[in-house]
Amino acid sequence: MVSVFFLLSLLLLLFSSSPPRLRLPGPAAAAPSLADDLRCGHGAPPCLAYLLVGARGDGARLLRLLLAVYHPRNRYVLHLSADASDSERRDLAAWVAAATPAVGAFRNVAVVGAPTAGTPVGSSSLAGTLRAAAVLLRLHPDWDWFITLNAADYPVVTQDDLIYVLSNVSRQFNFVDHTSDIGQKESEKVQSMIVDAGIYLAGRTNFFRASEKRPTPDAFKFFTGISCCSPWVILNRQFIEYCILGWENLPRILLMYFNNIMLPQEGYFHSVICNSLEFRNFTVNNDLRYKAWDNPPQTEPVFLDMTHYDKMVDSGAPFARRFRENESLLDKIDGNVLGRWGHGPVPGAWCSGRKSWFSDPCSQWSDVNIVRPGPQGIKLRQYINRALEEGEFGSKSCRSKFISDSSMTLKAELRASSNRSL
């Protein structure tokens, strides 16, 4: 049964008397009730921190996405933007609390009660991402990677697959699709200035465009996604701490600059990481998403359907986008790839309950530190290894040509792991 504490915590987030703030319990109160059973950090499998974002009408999609990526080892923040109603947020919080007993037992899911505007092209969406990252650092300071997903995304591997494969990857690495070759987009993406009304006007999601343009910056190099739009990233905790705590001035300087550009989420993290001497040599030029594009590419990838199934699964990518709501391909992924059925989470090695038509095997659990990868995990391992090798030897990365001893050691470890069977 879901704990009363968890339900009260969700209601506290939803009905905070101070709308601009997310009221948080102290670190001790936020600790999972089963913390002694869960190991994170050095020597343990990685723990992942997810931000799942959606807009008005996306509550059911976020719940489905949560259950598709749920694992007791991970931490989750769910954010419905300000255009969604309070009743939608209350419904989502109630659905999450009732979804599976593990959510209440491990207290690893939070629903944002005072959302940001989420203006599609403005800086309020970036503010929401940074805020969620700060919340995850406050509530759960022991995770290893921060993963952003949208309601139109879906996993193509189980969490057992992903956690197992990432166990063999250095936690120094960040996965960001990036390029400094802006080309013809320079005038629109770099020099144009806008003001996001959602930052200072409640309930507004529009923006205002400045009549003048500013020069291309020369104090730092501007990076954005190689694809037409790549705001989705997988970043390690050290880099997130660098962006939030800012012991150097670079993250703050770039944040002020990106406050007034179009689509800042498509360039902020990319530019910070590639201009940082500390982090750029550990940047993999891949966002670990499968996408299909029109020819020539448009501003968004095409919606995936049954015709994309074979290529998507064979790619080995852990995530795919974009999906329409209730797309039948999602049911096929659930049944053939994730092994998810009914309304519960994807079963993993942590689930010890009896599997039947009327019971959820994940309603009971054993050791949550054990993962058991499946066949898709082999493809994922090959996909990750290719991405790392392309970053090591390729020129399409912001890494400097200097290869540190640690990178060379890691490469040897990856080659050894590629010969290890799942």
Strand content: 5-15%
Shape: globular
**Residue-averaged pLDDT:** 83
Distance between the termini: 35 Å
Structural classification: alpha/beta
Can you put this structure into words, describing what you see?
GO terms for molecular function: glucuronosyltransferase activity. Pfam families: Branch (PF02485). Keywords: Glycoprotein, Glycosyltransferase, Membrane, Signal, Transferase. Residues 1-16 form the signal peptide. This is BGGP Beta-1-3-galactosyl-O-glycosyl-glycoprotein. This protein is α/β, with parallel strands linked by helices. It has one domain (4-177, 287-418). Helix content is 36%, strand content 10%. The protein is built from 15 helices and twelve strands. The chain has helices spanning 4-14, 27-30, 59-69, 86-99, 101-106, 124-139, 159-166, 186-191, 237-245, 250-258, 268-275, 309-315, 328-338, 375-393, 405-418, and strands spanning 48-54, 75-80, 109-111, 145-150, 153-155, 174-175, 194-196, 207-209, 234-236, 283-284, 289-290, 319-321. Strands 3-2-1-4-9 form a five-stranded mixed beta sheet, with helices on both faces. Strand 11, helix 12 (309-315) and strand 12 form a beta-alpha-beta unit. The longest helix is centred in the last third of the chain and has 19 residues, at 375-393. The two termini are 35 Å apart. Residues 1-32 and 401-410 have low confidence and may be disordered.
Summary keywords:
36% helix, 15 helices, alpha/beta, three-stranded mixed beta sheet, five-stranded mixed beta sheet, globular, 422 residues, 12 strands
